[in-house]
Specification:
single chain, alpha+beta, 4 domains, 6-stranded mixed β-barrel, 27 helices, ABC3_permease_C, transmembrane, transmembrane helix
Length: 841
């Protein structure tokens, strides 16, 4: 090793020529992964640090459809220094105008005098919240600016919630616990609990959540308190949260999108690996004479391998250091932008964990992509000094090196799968990257074979520039493989993102509106159902009306065991779920297994469970489910499994119970109305006018929110794909630079044979455009396959090829390669044939 290290040190005295692309590719890939991981860690740290403020208390106990009982209140008062009671539900804001009432959907929060326990409510004008909500001639209210602007309200204006009038006292600019509420269909309005008493919006059966935020004494053991609360009130439908995870929905989303972007970053690192491999191969090709001399002097193959491995290893450490430095600095640079976009606090800092993960990925990638070209140093013979050998033989390395490369690749995929926490997606991404690399490598070989054949075609005789370009693409020393692999993989990621994005948009904007209802009406009281039906079913513009009784409950036990112990973290047992009952059996084709109960059934409670979700949890016919409704446990046996579709935004319930199980509980009805667009306003006006407590949710507005979320996700993924593409472009520049020497010789020969500069430049341009278009075409195929796989197996929906982005990617690939090629065409065009040809003697 001493001899190998001395050789490596002397080799590196010549500088980093030939390794700039190596360093750029490695540093950029590592920086992307480190930056994404650091931002994710900053968000998680911010959520942890500000958990109490985000939640609104050190801990929270919440209930559905009801307020806390005396026992529950006594427990909270005994453990907390202070308790704040709030209620959360959806309703309609009504503003009386000269031309008739104007309405807007809002998420209402009723609060007591202790709210907020932590943090400060931001108001414009800046007045105390107590003054803004105080009752003078009518209760006060504050409202989110979005809804204020939408309804053209001014401070001092009057509006109604249900049957109660409120006066707008200020605009809500900051809600300290806003991120803890999760997804909401309307902007926030805050009023007092006392002000809601005369609104008629909290009648028995109305859908609302009551929340009790606890300010605990310093040093309280949150884990012990949670265990005690669950033990005492396990069967009352209690939901517990605390400051250890104040916004679980936000944190889960951040974890998932962060892990996904790391996987996209790995695709960029794979592209960089292609550049790393090409740079090492080109460097070693230029060291054939040196290696041959060393072998002539008696150096063993392992000594030479160790010498060049040490060089690459040292440069890998430099590249990792550059990438980690850049990745750690990026979050600081974009912190203001992130803070403005995210509803949670950021704790920007240097986090060792994400940096170590990025360094590990980078080191493994560099090792995987450099091991193969380094192993080929063994194949250089001393006889290369006496023969016109342009580089090492192209034979495969020994089996031991192939096995080690495969083992390292498996290790990298395993680490990515384990660290991401989304095993299926990680394995799919790894398979997609490896499959794309294989497809691109095969395509590069096919392109070279095809262009060689076309260059000899009689049909192209007389087209010198085109034949020369085709011959250069298919001939020895062609950069086709490097260009197609590097640019193709970057374009493939971008193509897949484009295909997925366009298909999701089509599903929302084209498919769903044809089957989705116009309105979702909730909180219809039993005595209001028939007048409601009389209004909507007699309207000729209404094509369909569906109704169902609606309750909410928490699945607490499965076959006598805690639901979490059986179902894990499945979404069905997370929080409360919608429940319904019916006496009428659905169509026979919807019943997957078992049988429905008779219309006059009066026996023990029975359940029909959604078949897909039952399969995911592991439920079968005969299993017993305990559901807590309004603090009362109802145990029922699964009598049927039914097909439930949620794709059309209509009424769908995971749990349907027999009528005798739920009919006695206070409940309301929900309804979906399918109507023509011109009738929407009249239906809303008549229904809300007759029953102010009924809340109407316009499905198109809800779909727009989903579309906005998908656009944000697609944008974030596009940024990751763009980083991959930038890496590919760097590799492309490296390939063009590496081929400059060969193009100098080609230009000299062509000038000697009488070719003008314009024809030589045209040949170079055609060569670059052909390679770029070929890379783009193969990328479209790989991206289309990736898009189809995601839409079919992840999104569980249909896939349609989108041609516009495909054409753009092919043109973009051709343009990128053309620009890179032309950037390195000036020196060959300026070369003097005599000097070049004499140097080859």
């Amino acid at each position: 090793m001493n001899l190998a290290l001395r050789i490596a040190r002397r080799e590196l005295r010549g500088g980093l020529r030939g390794f700039r692309i190596f360093l750029a590719c490695l540093a950029l890939g590592v920086a992307a992964i480190a930056a994404v991981g650091s931002v994710r860690e900053a968000i998680q740290s911010g959520l942890t640090r500000e958990g109490a403020t985000i939640l609104g208390g050190d801990a929270e106990m919440s209930f559905t459809y009801r307020f806390a009982t005396e026992d529950e209140r006594a427990f909270m008062a005994g453990v907390a220094a202070q308790v704040s009671e709030t209620v959360d539900f959806r309703s309609m804001v009504v503003v009386d105008r000269a031309g008739g009432p104007e309405r807007g959907l809002t998420q209402v929060r009723g609060v007591d005098g202790a709210y907020p326990l932590y943090g400060t409510v931001g108001l414009d004008p800046a007045i105390p919240l107590e003054d803004a909500l105080a009752t003078t001639d009518r209760p006060g209210a504050v409202m989110d600016r979005l809804l204020v602007d939408r309804l053209a309200l001014e401070v001092g204006d009057v509006f109604r919630l249900g049957t109660q009038e409120f006066q707008l006292r200020a605009v809500l600019t900051e809600e300290p616990d806003g991120a803890s509420g999760g997804f909401g269909l309307g902007p926030r309005t805050i009023v007092t609990l006392e002000g809601l008493e005369g609104s008629g919006l909290l009648s028995p059966g109305t859908l609302f959540d009551s929340q009790y935020r606890l300010a605990l004494p310093p040093g309280s053991d949150l884990g012990a308190l949670e265990a005690e609360a669950r033990a005492r009130f396990e069967d009352t439908g209690l939901r517990w949260r605390d400051s250890r995870n104040g916004a679980p929905g936000v944190q889960e989303f951040v974890d998932r999108i962060g892990a996904f972007l790391v996987l996209v970053g790995l695709a960029g690192l794979a592209v960089g690996g292609v550049g790393v491999s090409a740079a090492v191969r080109a460097y070693l090709d230029g060291k054939v004479e040196t290696i041959a001399i060393l072998k002539t002097l008696g150096a063993e193959g392992r000594t030479i391998f160790a010498a060049y491995f040490a060089q690459v290893g040292l440069l890998t450490l430099v590249g990792l250091a550059l990438g980690l430095t850049l990745g750690a600095a990026i979050p600081f640079a974009i912190a203001p932008l992130l803070s403005a976009q995210l509803p949670v606090p950021l704790a920007i800092s240097v986090y060792p964990g994400p940096l170590a993960e990025a360094a590990l990925y980078g080191a493994l990638t560099a090792l995987i992509f450099t091991l193969w070209p380094l192993a080929r140093t063994e194949q250089v013979r001393a006889a290369a000094l006496f023969r016109d050998a342009s580089g090492p033989t192209r034979a495969w390395p020994r089996p031991v090196w192939l096995a080690l490369t495969v083992a390292l690749a498996v290790t990298l995929v395993g680490l990515a799968t384990w660290l991401s926490g989304i095993e299926r997606l990680a394995l799919g991404t790894a398979g997609g990257i490896l499959g794309s690399l294989l497809l691109l490598a095969l395509a590069a070989r096919g392109i070279r074979a095809l262009t060689r054949r076309l260059a000899r075609s009689r049909a192209l005789r007389g087209r010198t520039a085109l034949r020369t370009a085709l011959g250069a693409v298919g001939g020895p020393g062609s950069e086709a493989t490097s260009v197609v692999l590097s640019l193709g993989l970057g374009l493939a990621v971008l193509a897949a993102v484009g295909q997925i994005d366009s298909n999701l948009r089509a599903a929302i904007q084209r498919d769903l509106p044809t089957v989705a209802p116009t309105y979702f009406f909730v909180d219809i009281q039993p005595d209001q159902l028939q007048p409601f039906l009389d209004r909507v079913t007699t309207d000729p513009a209404v094509s369909r009306v569906d109704t169902a009784p609606m309750l909410r409950g928490v699945i607490t036990r499965i076959n006598g065991q805690r639901a979490e112990d059986v179902a894990g973290d499945h979404w069905v047992i997370r929080g409360d779920r919608g429940l319904t009952y019916t006496t009428t059996a659905p169509p026979a084709e919807e019943i997957v297994a078992g049988s429905w109960w008779p219309d006059d059934y009066a026996g023990p409670p029975l359940i029909a469970f959604a078949a897909e979700e039952a399969g995911e949890i592991g439920l079968t016919l005969g299993d017993r489910i305990t559901v807590n409704v309004l603090g009362r446990d109802i145990e029922a046996e699964i009598a049927a499994l039914r097909e439930v579709s949620f794709e059309n935004a209509g009424i769908g319930f995971v749990v349907t119970m027999s009528q005798n199980a739920l009919a006695g509980a206070p409940h309301t009805y929900i309804a979906t109305v399918y109507a023509e667009e011109e009738a929407e306003a009249a239906i809303l006006r008549d229904v809300a006018g007759a029953a102010p407590n009924i809340t109407a949710i316009r499905v198109r507005d809800a779909l727009d929110q989903v579309a906005d979320a998908l656009r944000s996700l697609a944008a974030a993924t596009s940024y990751g794909a763009a980083a991959t593409l930038v890496t590919g472009f760097i590799v492309l520049i490296g390939a063009a630079a590496a081929g400059e020497r060969g193009r100098v010789f080609e230009a000299a020969v062509m000038k000697t044979l009488g070719a003008a500069r314009g024809r030589i430049l045209l040949s170079f341009a055609l060569r670059s455009a052909i390679l770029g278009a070929a890379a783009g075409a193969v990328a479209i195929l790989a991206g289309a396959l990736g898009g189809w796989a995601v839409m079919t197996f992840v999104m569980d929906t249909s896939y349609t090829f989108e041609p516009v982005s495909a054409v753009a990617i092919i043109l973009g690939g051709a343009l990128a390669t053309l620009l890179a090629g032309l950037a390195f065409a000036l020196r060959p065009l300026a070369a003097r044939p005599a000097l070049v040809l004499r140097a080859r003697d």
